[in-house]
Amino acid sequence: MTISLIVFFLLAAVAVLAALGMLLSRNAVYSALFLILNFITVAIFYLMLNAPFISIAQITVYAGAIMVLFLFVIMLLGAEKLPQNTSIRWQYPAAVVLGVLLALEFGYVLVFQIGGLSTAAALPANFGDPKDIGGLLFNQYLLPFEVTSILLLVAMVGVIVITKGDKTTR
Amino acid sequence: MIPLSWYLIFAAALFSIGLFGVLARKNAVAILLGVELMLNAVNVNLVAFWRYRAPNMIAGQAFAIMIFAVAAAEVAVGLSLFISIYRRRKTVVANEIDLMKW
């Protein structure tokens, strides 16, 4: 009981600090690496929530594929260091105000509006098996699954078309 | 057992940090990193609600998997747009990309 609380707070602290480090580091490569740390801690959160398949998918898809793509593009474009003189004057204070406002709204709603959500229902047998998730995806959610695959196909074709470059301007 | 609202507070904190990153960073790639953080916070909420409210239905996990796919597609298209912009303008600073500004 208390060990899970300690693990929760440690993981939450690591995840929030990694997110803050992503925000505050000037070098975009360090930002991406902090975000990988954040994704891995969130994957451990999924394990604590009895969702092992989501946890592994988080590590392989998010922390693996997507972040490798990010790091590759950052290093390809040389975007890790940007000049500091190109700022809009009111952008930073506006971002502080809007972000803090959103956090306060979340806090208000969570603390004062939600009362009876704190108990966890009992876990059924063979919860969240990859087998069960696959069965659900291919039976009940077949149409959203196919739409998602078409979305991925469209994204792939779009990426190829966008980055192909036009021959006429060269 | 950890109360559900702590997971929600944690996800809300991640979402707020991601929103701040989207609003405050000038590097276009860093803006996409903030969007990723926000999508991830939404996923934490989905899985936590599945575990605490409806563990018999696995729909929460199915939705989380679809959000993974959407995030992958979004990152691929966004980064290819930045590469295309970089080829023409030699910049990834968000407020120097003003081709459509009249």
Structure notes:
The complex is a heterodimer of chains A (170) and B (102). With 170 residues, chain A is an all-alpha fold. In chain A, 74% of the residues lie in helices and 0% in strands. Chain A has two domains: 1-82, NADH-ubiquinone/plastoquinone oxidoreductase chain 6, subunit NuoJ (Four Helix Bundle (Hemerythrin (Met), subunit A), Up-down Bundle); 126-170. Chain A has six helices and no strands. Chain A is globular and about 55 Å long. Chain B has 102 residues and is mostly helical. Chain B has one domain: Helix Hairpins, CATH 1.10.287.3510. At the A-B interface, helix 1, helix 2, helix 3, helix 4 and helix 5 of A face helix 1, helix 2 and helix 3 of B.
Structural domain count of chain B: 1
Given helix and strand content, the structural type of chain A is mainly alpha
> What gap, in angstroms, lies between the N and C termini of chain B?
57 Å
In CATH terms, what is the architecture of chain B? Answer: Orthogonal Bundle
Spatial separation of the terminal alpha carbons of chain A: 65 Å
